[in-house]
Amino acid sequence: MYKIFKYVIRDILRNRIMLAYTALLLLASGSIFSLEDTSAKAILSVLNIVLLIVPLVSIVFATIYVYNSNEFIELLLSQPIQRKKIWLSIFYGLSLSLGLAFLVGIGIPVLLFERSLTGLLLVACGALLSVIFAAIAMLAVVFTRDKAKGIGTAVLMWLYFTILFDGLVLFGLFQLSDYPIEKAMIVVSSLNPIDLSRILILLKLDISALMGYTGAIFQDFFGTATGMTLSFVALMLWILIPVGISLHKFSKKDL
Amino acid sequence: MIIATNVHKQFGKLQVLKNISVTCNKGECIALIGPNGSGKTTLIKSILGMVIPDSGFITFNGKNILHDWNYRSYIGYMPQIGRYPDNMSIGQVINMMKDIRNHEGSLDEELIQAFDLEKLYDKKMRTLSGGTRQKVSACLAFLFNPDVLILDEPTAGLDPVATEVLKEKIIAEKEKGKVILITSHILSELDEMITQVIFMQEGQLVFHKNMIDLQQETGEQRLSKAIAQIMLKR
Questions:
Q1: DSSP assignment, residue B124?
Q2: Single pTM value for the model
Q3: A52, A162 in Cβ contact below 8 A?
């Protein structure tokens, strides 16, 4: 297992896109931190990068990478190696390299300019989002044989999680505004890893006061240690469930 | 050694394998022949566990291959179309396979020398011609001294010299008592090596016969003529 992982990592780290991605993150977060004067504003700007760019790059890069390693997978399948190990090695390789790029690109500037709990939370959420979207990419790949269709599906998923989901939630919220749905909102928000990360970080920024009653309920739940732990469990499930399903599907796939 | 029992496989509506049962024993050199699309490659891939049959099972040395993966260390496989990571060189691919297989015992690098591949070790896989790719596939199949060799159209795309080298290698391995499963459309080149013939058509096993029996039944010495006679009778 370690050996295949080694080849995957070596292959990804040689990829120039990965270097460009790291440099882009470093440049963006570095300039935001040195331009913004208040730390809360800087964190908010970096948050937008973390919630939009990081998932997009992670899911698209991971999808294309897995499609391009088709030959590698085929070559290994006729060898005495478990299918599970091949698939997991690719996932671990992708997670580690995407996570590493994020930690260098965002983690280091945050550590330099904003050494607070909020900053730490931001880095943790971003690293988790990198892995989550790599996991979702693996799921998209295993269900579609066609490369163009697979990449399309991956981009659509990103669009769904960043834009469509919020729209749907807002629509539901207006329809059901007569009912006490604040508590249900906590469950609904855990259905989207991006929303979950956003809420976790925004609440730490004390702007939750602006979010009215829902904000107070959120603060009551996500502000506590149990709430934090549960949200991280939810984020972990967002990794485990897609990887589990894709692994199950891959071990039965005809190649 | 390899026993397939009632193997059935369907891709969508297309039935590719219909209740195939075959047995391969030690020391046999089996030719798997049939028209294009008769399910030869699918059968080979099912034996390798790359295609998972809908029903039926395959055993290797008495063990069901479904949940086993270690049996593949006794198999050398040469695919019909060898696909390799584009950005790796020949040397890197060969060294990676050595590293991943972690083979104990001696390596068989005879073919690498015979094809003079070491000179091309720095060449990237994407720049290779079809024939050179086939040579790499052949070298990898023989490299780990496997007990079973599965060769899917081994000579397609090879030049006459390389074909001769590979044929001699196959015959030498057969003499050592290895199981060899070979598919080819060039029946004349199979004559010198095979002991058994499996003929498939539209996913069905038409017959599985000893070469000597086949020769006696049809009165023909050469495989191509014997097969032609059988096909005319049907």
A1: B
A2: 0.91
A3: yes
Dist. CA B8–CA A84, nearest whole Å = 24
Distance between A14 CA and the closest CA of chain B, angstroms: 10
More confident residue, A174 or B148: B148
Say if residue A53 is exposed, middle or buried (CB neighbours under 10 Å; 0-12, 13-18, 19+).
middle
Task: Say if CB A24 and CB A105 are below 8 A apart.
Answer: yes
Locate A241 and state its tokens. 């469930």
Q: Which residues of B172-197 are buried (b: 16+ CB within 10 A; e: fewer)?
A: ebbeeebbbbbbbeebebbeebbebb
* B:67-106 residues touching chain A, CB 8 A cutoff: 69-73, 75, 77, 79, 83-87, 93, 96-97, 99-102
pLDDT at B182 over 90: yes
Domain span at B47: 2-233
> Could B48 and A77 be called an inter-chain contact, meaning their C-beta atoms sit closer than 8 Å?
yes
Q: What is the pLDDT of residues A64-103, one digit of tens each?
A: 999 999 989 999 998 999 999 999 999 999 999 999 999 9
Which of A71, A83, A252 lies at the smallest CB-CB distance from B83? Answer: A71
Q: Please check whether residue A78 touches B, CB under 8 A.
A: yes
Q: What is the CATH number of the domain that holds B220?
A: 3.40.50.300
Task: List the structure tokens of B89.
Answer: 């060189």
Assess contact for A214 and A181: CB atoms under 8 A.
no
Is the CB of residue B199 less than 8 Å from the CB of residue B33?
yes
Report how many domains make up chain B.
1
Quick check: B3 pLDDT over 80?
Answer: yes
Angle at which helices A39-68 and A147-159 pack, to 10 degrees?
A: 160
Q: What is the pLDDT of residue A210?
A: 67
Would the CB atoms of B72 and A7 count as touching at under 8 Å? no
Please list the alpha-helical segments (H only) found in chain B.
40-48, 90-101, 110-114, 130-143, 160-175, 211-218, 223-233
**What are B30-62's pLDDT values in tens digits?**
999 988 989 999 999 999 999 999 999 999 998
Give the start-to-end residue ranges of the domains of chain A.
2-250
